[in-house]
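Worked example 4.2. Below are the chains of a multi-component assembly; read each line carefully before continuing.
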Amino acid sequence: MIGISGIVNKIVDKYQGDRDMLIQVLLDVQSGLGWLPKEVLTEVSKQLGTPLTCVYQVATYYKAFSLAPRGQHLVRICMGTACQVRGSPLIRDRVQQLLGIEPGETSPDMKFSFETVNCLGCCAKGPVIMVDDAYYGPLGVSDVDKVLEKYG
Amino acid sequence: MSRINSFAELEKLRQEIKGKRDSNKPCITLCSGTACHTSASESVNEALERELDRQGLKGEIGLRRTGCHGFCEKGPLVVIYPEETCYINVQPEDAAEIVQGVKEKKIIERLLYSDPVTGEKIVHESEIPFYKNQQRLVFGPNRWIDPESIEDYLYIGGYSALSKALSQMTPDQVLEEIKKANLRGRGGGGFPAGRKWEETKNAPGEPKYVIVNCDEGDPGAYMDRSLMEGNPHSVIEGLIIGAYAIGSHEGFVYVRQEYPLAVENLYIALEQAEEYGFLGENILGSGFNFRVKVHRGAGAFVSGESSALMTAIEGKAGEPRMKYIHMSQRGYKEKPSCLNNVETWATVPFIINKGSDWFNSIGTEGSKGTKIFSLVGKVNNTGLVEVPMGMTLRQIIYDIGGGIPKGRKFKGVQTGGPSGGIIPERYLDTPIDFDELTKIGSMMGSGGMIVMDEDTCMVDMARYFVDFCCEESCGKCIPCREGLRVLSGILTNICEGEGKEEELQTLERVAEVMKDASLCALGATAANPVLTTLRYFRDEYEAHIKDKRCPAKVCKNLIDYYIDPEKCEACMICLRNCPTGAIQGGKNLVHWIEQDKCIKCGICYQVCPERFSAVEKLSGGPVPAPVPGREVVRKKE
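Applying the procedure described above to all two chains together yields the following structure tokens:
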């Protein structure tokens, strides 16, 4: 079994240990693990030779990174302007009500994480929500139940 | 494939590819951009493949998955060549009929676009009003080529501009051509690309860098995504030409990781370009060397700003820097760096191939060429449109976009993303170019064009943009960080009916300070949506403050849902769907809303059958008292 140091090592090697690639390393690590545990950040800092504070700065600055474990399914609601004018705030409120969590949170049973995003780039289909890799749109506020039920 | 070592070899290969292909052979092309992905393009592709196999036509009919065609509203789109027959909203179950139709040269009427006014069925893609009024130049090849196939790109003349530049032009001549073309940056500011190239070229210091900005963060804009997904080689070709002119041997593409398909297709294209000899050492035998690295952006709007983007490429938190000195002088790693947007780079090969005179013949005095807009929001034909600069907003929204859905009234159009403004009806005949938009308080931005109708609240929109910037502000400078918080607080109060009249002045004052004193363009322009809405829609602000009324009936605190007892047919639909059980009444009993329980989620409004339209939104007045137990009097049919 490869430990954290092995996982990080493989990725750091892919970028030839280039410190400029810190963001790319973190993206790759996260795509495997789903989030960035503290041990990983420490390991990245060690292997890239970048101070831990800098690693934390980057990991907290960019939206893509999560320092907490994410749920089994990631629900992302597009809050882009096109979706906004077509009623995405109502969709967001409905998801929030159904999941019982606010944007940025994960349900206690670890089933769902819920995020709002700026634009998914499918403006023609707005309002759009994305669950894991699947897109749903255009949605009405009463369609939200059916979408989430699929992931039960 | 072995590397192409000379210009002659490239042309030989192109002729070979052309020789292998029969332009009369039927080919089914299927739009596979992200928007069509949301509407089952994947399963349509599988179904078409299965059908071709089943009907034994794999050798006779080609199938190609292309990038975005632009008419996303009607996706998935299928276009059959050579006839150019266009089918819209194609579903997997249509596959058998389509394949059969191609075989028998029959047109499937029901899948054609029908003109909403005349009802006439339109067969050919280019005759559909949405396409007819466009001039698709940069975005045009998207619909013909498979983005994963470099041969497709070569077939339509790809890399011939690079070959021309390297074989027939000196770097100075390339630069001169771009300068003469008056190409202005398509990413927002409209800075002349030629000047930027020249500054980078002449700046002291080596190495020099060239960078593609594909950190398309403006909400409501997705043209860069579609170009990168659908035709990545055109961006790469433009970049190599730029590098040659500037004297750079290393380039970067900064692309949002939120665009997985763009990232994937870019990697594939770079690998192919290297394999064929368009990247690497001694490109096409010219002696010119150039390499490209990809950086995926991890999600920060402000990182799309040039200095912030370069900091991000260095692997740091992408915050903007003071720009006493242009990035073209001192950018990435303090070295001269030339950053242009995806669309700008993709325009370069056209200019080199066709010449600056040709480019200057399109557009307006100060803005040349075409521009891709993402026409979205409350408009019938949503999608990506490419038009010559100088077309009016009215032509774009009505002639191409087909007007506002459901006969609603046009209210405004937002251009330029969070840094832009909302343009009211009286400016609909303004010709669109960089300078005209700035004059009326908005800006070109990257090309987002979000149409709003009477159901859009302008105060709420201003708050939306301010909150967007508030969240995306990096916090480095005070005017932006604190100014946005003040604006957000005041706008939220107004939306909630707690606003005071004198606060409108505060909004304007804070906006002025932010404009003058912010570190980067994000802060300096963040108040634009507030300023333009105050300028053009002040009455809406006043209605919220003085009458506690939201004219568009959007702001939750100022509206109530109400069921008109005269219209309600007691169909039970809203009653069953209400998540809080706020709707009372019953079978044959007129429904009414218990206001204390109502959370204003809007479900009843949406589910009430259109033929009844009994659920209404009220604002600015008391809700009429309900009459519990009232029976429905059904009109006799």
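Take a moment to check your reading of the output against the notes. Chain B touches chain A through 61 residues (CB under 8 Å). The longest helix of chain B spans residues 478-495.
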